[in-house]
Specification:
By secondary structure, the chain is α/β, with parallel strands linked by helices. 41% of the residues lie in helices and 21% in strands.
Length: 389
């Protein structure tokens, strides 16, 4: 089954084309990204399975529909780079959707009801759900008869118990505005947890795992017996760990204090918290951990403090999650920092070893959200009534 995975971001469309024989036997046929969607000039990068590629080709992609048309064209029409003879060879499309609220506990076949729900949840993810929805609508228009599947970042965390997802606010705000912990990066946390059971040679429903997705955005999840029981991101992706440009956990009264002192609007404060804080704001250097580490080597005191704050918060969450699960079998690192920055892992591992000794496994697993989207799509489409698979 040939499955196209589409991931529409705020100004980009990532894609990967897979050929799945079953959930475990697959080949990647092509991948790429269209960046700067909606700008005067967009950039297009593409690679085939035999490594034929181009990077940052200047193209016109004024909207998501145009970007997806470019992708379909390169996959099916370009003499040098095409992977398919016709778009009819595509059997299904899988879409990443950030927010499914409480309506979606698992991936689902897209129909009008699902589209309406994604649109309704724009209020909870105003930056993410609109491009996700735009990609779905564009793909539906181009492939009206093709099965398409939505895979939600929030779905994996729908097993979090009520006492863990409710905030200490008047209950009416939960009922009226759906204010609760949702959690994000769910597809990544689920993927690395599934891989961990293979590495540990033990069923997921017998494991207690702490998964650390550490990239520009960072989150930690406690996974007990295969289910997410708590996660660091909350109502929005702003809560939790220190991140590239997000502040993470903060006393909410600080917001009111700064807004009053600096005469900031809610829009300006939102920008400060999401885009000017975190590693970038605290260090005054960069949102890239590699730049922080280089500054530490130059004896930059604030860079060292920023590194310590980043690691300290991760350690706090690991300790807390080990407590709520009454133990932990493995701690897993993934994403850009988690996979590649050994200085961060070494700092955290030292604390883990002092707490738990060697009985807790420490794993580094490369995440692959697009593959999991393809696998979910395969499974759902294969079960669809009257399909040819």
């Amino acid at each position: 089954m040939k499955i196209l995975v589409i991931n529409c971001g705020s100004s980009s469309v990532k894609y990967r084309l897979f050929d799945l024989k079953n959930k475990k036997r697959y080949k990647q046929l092509a991948c790429g990204i269209v960046e700067r969607v909606g700008q005067k000039t967009s950039l297009f990068s593409h690679q085939t399975k035999d490594k034929k590629s181009f990077k940052n080709k200047r193209v016109k992609a004024p909207d998501y529909k145009s970007a997806i048309r470019l992708i379909i064209a390169i996959l099916t029409s370009d003499k040098r780079y095409k992977t398919l003879e016709s778009k009819k060879e595509i059997d299904a499309i899988g879409h990443r959707v950030v927010h499914g609220a409480e309506e979606f506990k698992e991936s689902t076949l897209i129909d009008k009801k699902v589209i309406d729900s994604i649109e309704r949840n724009i209020k909870l993810a105003p930056l993410h759900n609109p491009p996700n929805l735009a990609g779905i609508l564009a793909a539906k228009e181009m492939f009206p008869d093709l099965p398409q599947v939505a895979v939600f970042d929030t779905a994996f965390h729908q097993t979090i118990p009520e006492y863990a997802y409710l905030y200490g606010l008047p209950y009416r705000y939960y009922k009226k505005y759906n204010i609760r912990r949702y959690g994000f990066h769910g597809t990544s946390h689920r993927y690395v947890a599934l891989k961990a059971q293979e590495v540990l040679n033990k069923p997921l429903n017998k494991l207690k795992l702490i998964t650390c997705h550490l990239g520009n955005g960072c989150s930690i999840t406690a996974i007990k017996n295969g289910k997410s029981v708590d996660t660091s991101m909350g109502f929005t992706p702003l809560e939790g760990l220190l991140m590239g440009t997000r502040c993470g956990d903060i006393d909410p009264a600080i917001l009111l204090y700064i807004m009053n002192k600096e005469n900031l609007s809610t829009t300006q404060m939102n920008d400060l918290l999401n885009k000017k804080s975190g590693l970038k704001g605290l260090s005054g250097i960069s949102n890239d951990m590699r730049d922080i580490l280089r500054a530490i080597k130059r004896n930059n005191r604030l860079a060292k403090v920023t590194f310590d704050v980043f690691c300290y918060r991760i350690k706090k969450y690991i300790g807390a999650y080990a407590a709520i699960m009454e133990g932990v079998d493995a701690v897993i690192f993934t994403a850009g920092i988690g996979e590649n920055v050994k200085e961060v892992r070494n700092s955290i591992e030292k604390t883990i070893r002092s707490l738990f000794g060697k009985r807790v496994k420490i794993l580094v697993i490369t995440t692959d959200e697009e593959l999991l989207i393809a696998q979910d799509t395969y499974e759902i489409v294969s079960k669809t009534k009257n399909n040819k698979y």
